[in-house]
Write a structure and sequence with these properties.
The protein is α+β, with helices and mostly antiparallel strands. The chain is 15% helix and 33% strand.
């Protein structure tokens, strides 16, 4: 079973100084035997997103541990 991260480049994002920044937004993740199964689980577990207008949702499969709390 694999883990998939779902993200989009739809919408607007702002930095800490409230300046617009062009980047992608992580919508969440889900597990599944393949991308279709994981996306189905993602849509069930993140059902609040169905009220949003995201048209370009992308996914990437993770292959290892996630490292968190990195700073630029």
């Amino acid at each position: 079973m694999g883990n998939f991260i779902f993200f989009t480049n739809d919408g607007d994002t702002y930095d800490n100084l409230h300046k617009p920044t062009n980047n992608m937004q992580v919508l969440g993740d889900a597990n599944g035997d393949n991308i279709d199964e994981a996306f189905k689980c993602f849509k069930i577990n993140q059902s609040y997103l169905s009220t949003q207008e995201y048209k370009n949702v992308m996914a990437i499969q993770t292959v290892g541990d996630v490292i968190m709390n990195l700073e630029l």
